[in-house]
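Researcher: Hi, I'm a grad student and pretty new to this. My advisor asked me to get structures for two proteins we've been looking at. I'm not sure of the right format, so I'll just paste the first sequence and hope you can take it from there.
Model: That works fine. Here's the first sequence with its structure tokens right after it:
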Amino acid sequence: MTDTAPARTRLVPGSTGHLDPAFLADRAAIQDVVAAYSLYYDSGDFEALGDLFTEQATFTFTPQPEGFPPAVTTRKHIVAAMAALYRHNTGVRGAHQRHLTANTLVTRLDATTAEARSLLSVSFAFDDGRNEPGRSGSYVDLLEKEGERWRIASRHLWLRELPQIPGS
């Protein structure tokens, strides 16, 4: 977005007045970050996964998953926690998680901050060929633009109820 572009706040699905090239590029980049998280986690690429977060990012959960902290703060700790969960699932359970993140909607966007909401479904692919459903929920991501790059500054995973979208 250029410095002369108007500040963007809550976006209304279906409206077209804000669909300038800069907005479309930012929205595509934000959707790429949301999709990349699942692909990097599921493939075990934690260096790339960590690069999706700001240094001081937070990852919180409602409710707290059993055996997992209710919140993790900083990129370093988020990567360590997610890598430990990955190792537990692959090593102890013999299962590989498959995250399907869908219906990503950018609900707020300005020059340096954004909010995106997505639905999540997780399944487990076992070493013996079985598949089983896992968790479902909703991500609420707050993102910050650092230079030309969007990163997750805060990710909240809602594992039961879906959070209300402000203004809807």
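Researcher: Oh nice, that was easy. Here's the second one.
Model: And its structure:
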Amino acid sequence: MTHSAVATDSLAAALDGLVDRVPGAEVAVVLSPDGLLLGRSRHVEDHLAEQVSSLVSGLYALGQAAGRVCVAGGLRQVVVQMSRSFVFVATTRGGAILTVRMGGDADIGDMAYEVALFAAQAERALPVYLEPARTVTGGISGAHHWRP
């Protein structure tokens, strides 16, 4: 059974507000970068939260890999369109991952706007995640190599 790592009423209220404001939005979940459940909107049962955590962890890793391979910068969002619904995955500035499931007739533009608004407002209720330090390969950074 998955339990929230951060149990805040304000985060749940923010997620409920997001689902209520966006036509077609059904559920919203916030995860840590490593897939731990931080918060969820109403009507998200434990079993669904666990499934979403697994699904989003894979999508997030795939998006990060695409950013590295394409030398395109950090991951901002992943949108999966199916015949009857969308899964919208977006990262917040602090590193948390917002996921929203929407009906197939929902407006992605409205969702993109609301996600940006949510990320700006929810930062107060979310922890900040730091990226691990990068290691330098091939010797000391900035050193000149002398070849005889």
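Researcher: Is there anything I should tell my advisor about the second?
Model: You could mention this: Confidence is low (pLDDT under 50) at residues 1-7, 139-148.
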